[in-house]
Design a protein that fits this description.
With about 180 residues, the chain is mainly α. It contains 8 helices and no strands.
């Protein structure tokens, strides 16, 4: 990340911030979509994150930490968006005609099963799994992104894996006894 761009944006330079926003928009959207599982909600989350970033940027102490700080803002916005969507029961399944970025090696049935399991997780566990498995962050980096201790990040990652396993096993049991997968 260009430290000087961040410093210019901190001083109110809108063009510098626009460059930062364009530079980071793709990965912001990818992470938001992985967490929220909805393109419209992901777009809203990215827009809200960038609006929050513009407003809060003057308070960023270390310009070298811009990406980690931006990740933290995004995760918080995704938490709010996810809770809002649950309240209004506006959750839609990832349709088969939407691209499954990065999941090409999985069969459609596997992706559907993972999608169902992932949707059963609370937003906090989704965030941990996305940061670890999609962005490839280590628990220490996850801790930094979420503003939590490293031990807490490791613990949450462990419990998120357990919850995902339990959700997948429950789905398999339901199919095995003749239930439907929906």
């Amino acid at each position: 990340m260009d430290r000087e761009l961040v410093r210019l944006a901190q001083r109110g330079d809108q063009e510098a911030f626009a460059v930062l926003a364009r530079t980071n928009a793709d990965w912001l959207f990818a992470v938001a979509h992985r967490m929220l599982r909805d393109f419209g909600q992901a777009e809203d989350a990215v827009q809200q994150t960038l609006a929050n970033a513009w407003r809060e940027l003057p308070r960023l102490r270390d310009p070298d930490r811009f990406e980690a700080w931006l990740r933290r803002l995004l995760v918080r916005v995704c938490y709010v968006e996810s809770r809002r969507a649950r309240r209004y029961a506006n959750v839609r399944a990832l349709s088969a005609d939407e691209p499954a970025h990065g999941d090409d090696q999985l069969s459609l049935a596997d992706r559907d099963q993972l999608e169902r399991g992932f949707r059963r997780l609370p937003p906090e566990q989704r965030a941990i799994l996305v940061l670890h498995h999609y962005l490839g962050l280590a628990p220490v980096e996850i801790a930094d992104a979420l503003g939590i201790p490293a031990g807490t990040a490791r613990s949450r990652l462990h419990y998120a894996h357990r919850a995902m396993r339990a959700a997948l096993e429950a789905d398999e049991r339901r199919v095995a006894i003749g239930g439907s997968r929906a």
